[in-house]
Amino acid sequence: MYRDWVLTALIAWPTVAAAGVLLAPPRWAKHLALAASLIEFGLSVPLWWMFAPEGGVQFTLDAPWIQSWGIHYTVGVDGISLFMVLLTTFLVPLSVLGSYSYITTRERGFYSLLLVLTSGMIGVFVSLDLFLFYVMWELMLIPMYFIIGVWGGERRLYAAIKFFIYTFFGSLLMLAAILVLVHVVAQRTGVYSFAYSTLIAHVGGLGPLAFWLFGAFFLAFAIKVPMFPFHTWLPDAHVEAPTAGSVLLAGVLLKMGTYGFLRFALPLFPAVALHPGVQRIVVLLALIGIIYGGLVAMVQPDFKKLIAYSSVAHLGFVTLGIWALTLQSVQGALMVMINHGISTGALFFLVGMLYERRHSRLIEAFGGIARVVPMLAAVLTVVSLSSIGLPITNGFVGEFLVLVGVFRTYPLAALIATTGVIIAAMYMLPALQRVIYNPLDKPANEKLPDLSPRELAVLVPLIACILWIGVYPQPILRRIEPASRQLIQTVRLNAAAFTAAR
Amino acid sequence: MPAIPLSLLWVVPALPLLGFVLNGTLALTRPGAKRAVSIVGVGTLVLAFAAAALAVIEFGGQHATAPLVFRYWDWIPAGELQVPFALQLDQLSAVMILIVTGVGALIHGFSVGYMHEDPGYARYFAYLNLFVFFMLVLVLGASFPVMFVGWEGVGLCSYLLIGFWFNEKINGDAGKKAFIVNRIGDFGFLVAMFLIFWRVGSLDFVTVFSKAPAVFAPAGALITAITLFLFLGCTGKSAQIPLYTWLPDAMQGPTPVSALIHAATMVTAGVYLVARCGVLFALSPTASATVAGVGALTALFAATIALKQWDIKRVLAYSTISQLGYMFVGVGTGAYAAGIFHLATHAFFKALLFLGSGSVIHAMHRAYHATHSHDDAQDMRNMGGLARYLPWTARLMWIATLAIAGIPPFAGFFSKDEILGAAFAEGTVRPAWYVFWAMGIGAALLTAFYMTRLMLYTFHGPNRTGEREREHLHEAPWSMTGPLVVLGALTVAGGALNVAPLFGGGAFLERWLDPVTAAASRLSPLVELPRATEWALVVGAVLVAGLGIMGAFRLLRPEELVPARAAAPESGLGRILWKKWYVDELYDAVLVRPITWVSREVLWKIVDVRIVDGFLVDGTAVVTRALGWIGSRLQTGEVGVYVVGFVVGVLAVLVAALK
After folding, report:
1. ipTM of the predicted structure?
2. For FRET with A296, which of A333, B297, B412, B435 sits at 20 to 30 Å CA-CA?
């Protein structure tokens, strides 16, 4: 049955294919990787229709793995993870296609790492056993480290190590927290189990320990998001990473942080997460991310850094939406996660394409190129508008829902966050102007080729999603609503119960 | 004739959208196909006007008292927030779609001649079609979010068209400024939506307006906050104090764009919004007074700047800001019909003025082009005596000048008179309105003066264009003058739309709009004046207009002007006005530069690079000490402090590990 094997296939297939890529002749590598990732995408597509919005966790498979420690191989998706899986399988083939001319050395290694990374990313989103989750979390860390460190720019080693240490530090804390959590729960139930469902059922009343466990989880995820002040690995990683690395880093990996908030930090430790002091700090950091990220983005001379800081701002909206815990804000947060993957992914592709033409990421290296490359300019305009949340692009739907929802819980924070829409225009439009408008004053820009069919094939699906989600987001909203409602209910109920018990 | 189902209303905005798609495709693939572009661009607008007219006739025959709402699809459904993509037709949106498609079609027609030599012809029409689509969504949207789609969409098209000639930095800068300043206003619109949804639980117009009187305490803080945030949006879109500064710069765009977007339609969106939300504004006397007060102040303030501008389009830009101010006085007073009436007549005469100035600039530009001169084709000091070369344009623009000055029987007289009359009447109840009225009269005097100045300097006296250029000055082709003639006819006859009972008229527009404005009028009824007072006000206003015109004729000496490049700089008050009261400079010094500086020098270079990232440049010792200090403070029992400790500690370890 498709329902039983699909998630496992989505995890396993890319790694199997990676082995194939490694063994095949080098000149086949990219074509094989493209085929493999398209098959992966094809495998995932039926999820869209077969997913039952009210059905809770679905497509589950549970098998014992290391029984003496209570470790299982448990996978499944619900409304929260469904679109993270689909976003991943959608972005990977585009990333492969987008790397065709960018990656010219050690192609087999690059594409097989990209495929292994895919396994890890899918695994993170579908794991319902904390040990499995941890394994997948580490699994995706390593390929990304090499992608940045081997195929990156001039300071690639520094960036790769920084990325690795930050993330690894967080994940070690998380591992410790998982082990403690499992141990404490085992003392209550008498059985060791890493199963998400078991842990969440018996996690109440931990007392002060809950705070430390929450802190460990929160940090691991906050670094990944990244939230201010843990964000400084991101600009370096993005600037140095090759296009495909940046796209997947921004498009998928950052979402693991906010996904972790939704799946683990809040449901497992609701009383701590909703403690007024904790709330205040999280909301404050999210707001700093929105305002500060936007303002710092505004003054970046490097286009990739600009996008990196804008990600800090966008993910600030997500965190804010999650913590506000209203239906609109959580649905909005999930929408922003999807939209950011699409729009920022598209932006990184475009900057990569500009880089391939001029070997510069600096905004000032361009200017006036709308006349030379009208197609590229048009696409860049649409994507920029989506990034600043213009209505009828995807960006608006997410930010609007987040802000409407946050307003009910934290009116003042919502008011401050709404200034983010002004700041977004303040960093995106000047950059757009300096790249495609203004005098065409650099001779090197006079003969730039416009988008090739291959590049169009990468960008058109993204543009289509930008407009589709902007105009008709209803099919997505309908699929994520029950899970969001469920999550809010669980967190609120448990928080109230724990607080009362204390 | 069989009845047309009004649910086909979507056809009206869909036609220009289709035009955008077709012309956009042509722009990217075959930019040289100008004939096809013209047919698509103008054709879709003419059809849209026809469709709009049919819809309004059908609607008028139904004598509906409530808006007809058509839901097309569920746009943003999220729990209790349900935003369908729905359009609504009522008496107010009916007026607006006729203006938008009608004036739009004329201006599209004018553009065929005006833009014909431009290499970006297809792109131009694509943007212009897209603008009309968004403008129609704005006025037809049945909820705040759908209206917001149009609201931001027209802003986008404005941005694209101001910066249309994008290879010059000044144009791109102007477009960017327009977008960002408008986003400040949009911030207000968004916050107002959040507040409304928070209290009412819906964002549909019908629901919100029917529930508002029960939900909101009259004159309460909440309704005042909502309406003031909405009005912040209006000050952006409709260029009122303090957010008007983008509109003069917007004149960098092609002149037909200035006529359509920055005079006749988009900039009136704020007036439309206040009229649409009349019920909300009527509930808050503070907000209504703010609307009327800001409108009156803007009307006067912008008129002073218009006195000393030399660029023909800049004069018209400040004139537009000033006239929009009048409209806000009208809707702020609760005289919604008067405000919308002035919106309509202004659309006619200001579009005529802009297109007329377009004819002038077109002629000047061709003349300078023929002699390879680089003189400014928009500076009135380089014009003079043009009535001899452009007789039709001169005559038509004189009609529009008399209309905007408020001389009977032209359209502007009736609408401006109604606004000032309503303001004076309100003054009998709330004295602040006497001040607004006085400011309006003062602005009327200045309007008559600066418009006559524009006409005298442009069309009369000796010509200053240059010996060699003079022979190249010609009237534009009929494809361009034709739309001017139609607008001229509307300027002459437009007042008939709403002749007040005072002059024996039936106040058609007022009665037509009654179903829309009735609810607000019940909450905050208009004050009636005695007939004698009304007559006195009318006579007084006309005298003031006459005084302004005569004053300009007496005081100004076109024959003493010298061409722009030989002109001496202004001094004294003239210089301050010419420099627009230095408001742009002030905003730049107080807001723009400090924000950029702090972002670059403090936030990025110090906070981000040095503090957060380079935390440990000075060595581990500092952090260890800091950790020790934090450790000693840990035992406070306050969870917040625990979290801070945690965060700082982790950062320290992280950075230490990196070194």
Report:
1. 0.94
2. A333
